[in-house]
Automatic annotation (TrEMBL):
This is Molybdopterin molybdenumtransferase. It is an enzyme of class 2 (transferase). The keyword Magnesium applies. CDD domains: MoeA. It comes from Marinibaculum pumilum. Keywords: Magnesium, Metal-binding, Molybdenum, Molybdenum cofactor biosynthesis, Transferase.
Amino acid sequence: MAPVPVDTAFEAALALASPVEGTERVALPAAPGRILATDSPAAGPYPAFDHAAVDGYALRAADGAEAPVVLPCTDLSLPGSRPAPLAPGRAARIFTGAPIPDGADSVVMQEACAAVTLPDGTPAVRIGTAAAAGGNLRRAGEDMRPGEALLTAGSLLDARHLAAAAAADIGALEVRRRVRVAYLSCGNELLPPGAPAAAGIPAARDSNRPMLAALLARPWIEARDLGIQPDQPERLQAALAEAAGWADLVVTSGGMSVGETDHLPEAVARLEGEWAALQVAMKPGKPLGLGRLGAAVLLGLPGNPYAAFVGAVLFGGLVLRRLSGQPAVRPPGRRALLAEAVSRRPGRTDFLPVALVPAQGEGPPRLQVLGPGGSARLAPLLAADGLAEVAGDLAAAPAGTPVRFHSFAELFGTG
Ligand SMILES: Nc1nc2c(c(=O)[nH]1)N[C@H]1C(S)=C(S)[C@@H](COP(=O)(O)OP(=O)(O)OC[C@H]3O[C@@H](n4cnc5c(N)ncnc54)[C@H](O)[C@@H]3O)O[C@H]1N2
Ligand code: MOO
């Protein structure tokens, strides 16, 4: 089969997924990290009422237009109380956040005022600077108005959304149900870290499940670990059937290649699922399985740990975003330049672990490629800031070659 370009593989992955149906209403404390299901307008005005922006004195601007002026001041407005209407020609002591008394339309900061006493003993204030209409006060609804568009469906709810929702008197939000993801590793040679190996049998530590568990540890995802499956079609079939009965997405790693021990395609076929074993023109991550089992999307990642990581963040991330109802587009990255030459042949798109070189002046960020390449290498990732995508059609990649830089924040969906 001819290798498919990376963009074709992204499109094929996207075409398999559609947003999960089902929503739930959650109170704000349970909403962070969930995906908003419906556009949510402001429920109340923010600010909720006209209030003072500073500690000082409320008055009619007209009464303080020409400073200095002394105004009787016997009224008080405290936060959390309702002040009496303010009579003309008078001032009211007011504190930050307290309601503006009816009649007042200006606040003068206390630093520009002095408390004085009139000859008859009445408390008064000497206003030292001219008052401006609307000065030092915040009007109800000047930031958000009830009914006005506020939160957009598909948003991953973070601190900004929560602050705005609460301020606009939204107590609960309609979010999409969690995306259910089941994942497993394939391979007789695999053992979990720390598990004792059988005497004399070389064992490889399963790093792909912990990697996937970490990527899936998001509030909008419900993940189920289906363990390590041996290279036996029946066992794989049983695990996949269990996964597909529950999950929206099933992710496997290993068993994707062409050897006799690679049983995944057969297990999917026996379950009457669809399965396309793509050869993607990328390095690493050439073998990629895309399919469907019942209602679940199937994503088959290569076993090699770096290849599995790249496939998981690129294709897994895209499918997950689509399933979750978030905007889902091919990871865009941003334009950056290779700081040094990379040896390559035209044909496959490279995904390389890179570190941002500290900026020197203007221009796109420059990237240092880390460690020797190889689809099984993990150590170079540890010092990386993201992945560089070197376009497949480039015959060579000298220093200064423009690439797409995918930050880990972008790839992990946290940026
Ligand atoms: N004759 C060919 N052989 C291979 C080809 C090919 O085109 N022709 N492609 C190579 C490429 S590229 C890749 S990538 C791998 C993909 O193989 P599989 O997906 O079938 O993966 P395995 O064979 O099961 O394992 C490969 C490698 O990775 C280790 N592994 C597997 N799972 C895990 C895990 N969960 N945690 C850590 N390490 C894992 C496994 O022990 C092997 O070392 O095929 C090439 N071969
Ligand atoms: O495509 Mo494989 O992932 O190079 O090792």
